[in-house]
Specification:
Largest sheet: 3 strands, antiparallel
Radius of gyration: 19 Å
Structural class: mainly alpha
CATH superfamily: Intergrase catalytic core
Distance between the termini: 58 Å
CATH architecture: Orthogonal Bundle
CATH class: Mainly Alpha
Length: about 200
């Protein structure tokens, strides 16, 4: 048997403006908060869905990701904007009786069960459609956009590797190919050299 080589494709990435429009177009506060976590912390769909209320550490500004891909625990960043949206969702969810003590941060139809990745992806598709984004967008697109935008802001690639929970640096290096702001800064050989 011969191994089949699959073509390596570059991921679809949203601009910062498109990501902001997508999150704003989400139909309710819970989906806005969940999409904010996916983009603002670079989490996978399953990791967003499996977050519990106790995983939000507002003192250290971190999210605890338990048993992410590869059955590994890690911490993800928690920005003030994401924390603000999580608090807004907590107030609404608590008032509706959906937030159980020590329960899921994003409960499903039954508060005892978490939101599923499929439901989260459906929320992303609905928001993309409402925002008029023509690109093929999934929850993972928000993760790709998170990594690309950090790279464009000159965050060290090894820091991005840790934030994404990648085992190998070569997995993270795919974002160098889509970081267009970095590519625009490179002077080609035909460009005039600056005077020395």
């Amino acid at each position: 048997m011969q191994p089949v080589k699959l073509p390596r494709t570059v991921p679809v990435v949203l601009s910062t403006q498109e990501a902001t429009q997508l999150i704003a177009a989400a139909r309710n506060v819970k989906h806005q908060a969940a999409l904010s976590v996916a983009y603002g912390a670079g989490l996978r769909a399953n990791e967003v869905c499996r977050l519990k209320i106790g995983d939000v550490d507002s003192q250290r500004m971190a999210l605890r990701v338990e048993q992410g891909k590869g059955a590994k625990d890690r911490y993800a960043m928690l920005s003030p904007v994401v924390l603000q949206r999580l608090r807004a969702w907590w107030r609404v969810g608590h008032a509706q009786g959906r937030m159980l003590p020590g329960g899921w941060l994003f409960p499903g139809m039954d508060p005892m069960d978490p939101l599923t990745p499929r439901q989260l992806n459906r929320a992303v598709h609905d928001a993309a459609s409402a925002a008029g984004i023509a690109k093929r967008v999934t929850t993972h697109t928000l993760r790709h956009s998170f990594a690309t935008h950090l790279l464009e802001r000159k965050v060290d690639i090894r820091v991005i590797q840790v934030l994404l929970g990648h085992k190998k640096l070569e997995t993270t290096s795919i974002y160098v190919h889509v970081a267009t702001d970095l590519l625009r800064e490179v002077l080609g050989p035909l460009e005039p050299l600056p005077p020395s």
